[in-house]
Design goal:
The complex is a heterodimer of chains A (289) and B (219). Chain A is mainly α. Chain A has 13 helices and 1 strand. In chain B, a hairpin with a 5-residue loop joins strand 9 and strand 10. Chain B has a 6-stranded mixed β-sheet with strand order 3-2-4-5-6-7. A 4-stranded antiparallel β-sheet of chain B has the order 9-10-8-11, sandwiched between helices. Classes of the chains: A mainly alpha (289), B alpha+beta (219).
Chain lengths: 289, 219
């Protein structure tokens, strides 16, 4: 029976079985859930379809969310000259598009959460455009990402209320970094370094949403985190190592999460949520509703 | 957790706890009532009480009561759809520091006049737990096939029910019985590894002193 507790376990299993992280995660899920390989494939394909639909819909969306705070920014990005390059530009567009669809009560795939739902599709769909690859590669990437998310959920937390934004967007970026690394032919070790590099740079990030909504700063942060995951993957693919191994970074993320005061963990009692502008927005919003 | 808990759920935004979890709570309350609700009073506690408008928690709870799942785009319009379908909903902002911060308490009245009170909490990531049914403490997550039965507290009832399941080769993963007083009405909750057939449910329903049976399928 395939089982893992850590990123190191995943990498070791991949080495022992001569498989990618994605295939180790597939085998684990098959044994754990007693579902067939075909069922897993279908379920993941269904999720990919929802991700792509959200990215496409969000890229043309001009409508504002119920609060009026977000909406139309992914579209705005599609209308400009992407001096940052097509992959980075598209990752930002797709990530923000999916997040805007989420804020507008549209259909998305939480990954690992709804607040961070743009990061993973943003990164992998932009890379797929670059690779011009078929869906199979993307589905593999989603399994890789799921394995990373599973380890974080098990050994730390993916909840903003418990660990701040580092637990949500940080984990999403780590998942995306591993997925992109494997999609581009990186080894399981490189994917593990990508996880560590991506998460390290998001440590300490707090969750301070304006008026308690999954909108500001969440939507734009999804775009930043998606781009961020690409840089981590790029570094790992170049053979750059993380000095601190992925599992220790995950553990550090959890400890930091516990040390973040409650005001900065999804309660909207600190940080950006307490700025004069945010307070005015919250007041206005309370009157409207 | 599993792969599809991490890459998932597929859901209507914006929040897995405040929207997807809320829809699941509504669905669970509907299943426990067991018929179309005509009246619903929904008490909102903690973070649900403070941020429900911005997260569409109200829409999602009502959508669940109409049987819509967490990924149903009709969640957006559920309040209007409820009015059209004859479901009267009243929201109450409540306070109780002892409850989980994302708690909803449903008081439902169905189309045959039956009533039920269901309390549940949204735990994050779309996961939920039902904590109370008509004053009985329970712990139903919807992760398993769950059989809920209300019966007269007397010897042999639990054995009769478990025997019916055993004959169907259904393994019980978790089980809990609770009662308010000795010999009074009691409640049993059985979570099983295999699915429970309609035939088995009918057999349980036919056991003397069992007042009602509900089957909750994994959400």
């Amino acid at each position: 029976m395939v089982n893992f507790e850590s990123i190191a376990d995943l990498v070791e299993l991949a080495g022992k079985l001569g498989k990618s992280l994605a295939d180790v995660v597939r085998q684990w899920e098959m044994e754990r859930s007693e579902c067939s390989a075909a069922f897993l494939q279908e379920e993941m394909q269904r999720r990919l379809v929802v991700m792509r639909e959200a990215a496409t819909k969000g890229s043309t969306l001009k409508e504002k969310s119920f609060s009026g705070l977000v909406g139309g920014d992914a579209y705005r990005l599609t209308q400009c000259d992407l001096f940052v390059g097509p992959v980075v530009g598209k990752a930002a567009i797709y990530a923000m598009a999916v997040s805007e669809v989420n804020a507008g009560m549209g259909k998305i795939v939480a990954g690992p959460t709804a607040g961070s739902c743009g990061v993973l599709p943003g990164a992998i769909l932009a890379v797929a455009d670059f690779l011009k690859c078929d869906d199979e590669i993307l589905i593999q990437g989603l399994f890789t990402a799921a394995g990373v998310g599973e380890v974080v959920a098990r050994n730390a937390t993916v909840s903003g209320a418990m660990g701040g934004c580092q637990a949500e967007c940080g984990t999403a970026a780590a998942m995306a970094a591993a997925a992109v690394t494997e999609m581009l032919g990186g080894t399981p070790e490189q994917a593990s370094d990508a996880v560590a590099l991506a998460l390290k740079n998001m440590l300490g990030l707090v969750c301070d949403p304006v008026a308690g909504l999954v909108e500001v700063p969440c939507v734009k942060r999804n775009a930043f985190a998606a781009v961020h995951s690409l840089v981590a993957a790029q570094m790992a693919l170049a053979g750059i190592k993380s000095v601190i191994p992925a599992d220790e970074v995950i553990e550090a993320m959890y400890r930091i999460g516990l040390q973040i005061p409650c005001e900065l963990r999804e309660t909207s009692k600190g940080g950006l949520a307490m700025t004069p502008t945010a307070q005015a927005i919250a007041e206005r919003f309370a009157k409207v509703t | 957790m599993g792969v599809f808990d991490i890459i998932g759920p597929v859901m209507i935004g914006p929040s897995s706890s405040h929207t997807a979890g809320a829809a699941r709570l509504g669905q669970m309350a509907l299943t426990i009532l067991g018929e179309k609700p005509l009246e619903a009073t929904i008490g909102l506690y903690g973070s649900f009480a403070k941020t429900y408008k911005g997260h569409g928690t109200d829409k999602a709870l009502v959508a669940g009561l109409m049987g819509f799942s967490a990924d149903d785009p009709r969640i957006r319009d559920s309040l209007d759809l409820a009015v059209q379908s004859g479901l009267k909903v009243d929201f109450q902002i409540m306070e109780d520091a002892n409850l989980h911060p994302n708690t909803a308490r449903f008081s439902l009245k169905g189309n045959s006049g039956k009533t039920v009170k269901v309390t549940g909490a949204s735990l994050g990531g779309g996961r939920i737990v039902i904590t109370q049914i008509d004053g009985y403490q329970v712990e139903i997550t919807g992760d398993y096939q769950t059989l809920i039965a209300v019966y007269q507290d007397k010897p042999g009832i639990v054995a009769t029910v478990t025997k019916i399941l055993a004959q169907e080769n259904v393994n019980i993963a978790f089980m809990r019985v609770s009662r308010k007083n000795k010999g009074a009405q009691a409640l049993m909750v059985l979570e099983t590894d295999q699915s429970i057939s309609e035939k088995a449910i009918a057999a349980v329903d036919a056991v003397p002193t069992i007042e009602f049976v509900r089957l909750v399928r994994p959400l």
